[in-house]
From TrEMBL:
It comes from Smithornis capensis. GO terms for molecular function: guanyl-nucleotide exchange factor activity; small GTPase binding. The gene is Dennd5b_0. This is DEN5B protein. It comes from the Eukaryota. Pfam families: DENN (PF02141), uDENN (PF03456). Residues 1-261 form the UDENN domain. Coiled coil: none annotated. The lineage of its organism: Eukaryota, Metazoa, Chordata, Craniata, Vertebrata.
Amino acid sequence: VSGENFDQSPLRRTFKSKVLAHYPQNIEWNPFDQDAVNMLCMPKGLSFRTQADNRDPQLHSFIITREDGSRTYGFVLTFYEEVTSKQICTAMQTLYQMHNAEQYSSVCASSSCSMDSLASSIDEGDATSLAKLQRYNSYDISRDTLYVSKCICLITPLPFMQACKKFLIQLYKAVTSQQPPPLPLESYIHNILYEVPLPPPGRSLKFYGVYEPIICQRPGPNELPLSDYPLREVFELLGLENLVQVFTCVLLEMQILLYSQ
């Protein structure tokens, strides 16, 4: 467990994550920084869910900027897979028993009552809130299915966001599908790493993912730099007025800091 959020229920806490595997082991021009990639793939840490929680896959991106100013771009798909380890499920149940005991004690203390007279002394509001807490914020190993977050990440020299997003989604479908894909998963990964070249400047490239073809385009030398991020999301996140203000600040060469969770 990370050293924070102990007041929250175990399913709302964050846990320490780690890189399970990466391939290739290292590239001379792009050395693999395990700590940085681990932190940027799961900035909030490992998280658990049950069948009652939303477990839709989420996609985000990051940039690693080195001392010489060179950049590499990461594209991450986070999804939840079922926990098959009985040991982890049992540990989660134990964490909940400890958490519920602490909540039980704190509600009792706030009501100035002894453990034996809890039922008679606790007021109706506290009883209702405790019941809701235990019903909606609980884990029962015999009744619930436990899921844990997992990431697949693609690190590239250029920000081909849409192409990477499509490839990761197709790879995720292949991983979770009951029907295996036409070829082993390793062959698709080998293909995109070693057989799909960067498109020349000013050209488009079409390559095959797991299920469908994917197209990426690289601007020419006289065109604007590659910006594959959807502009619509910027408007949705910042709003029109804020975006106009940011654009004005850019034109006035002011320093801009965007702060986000």
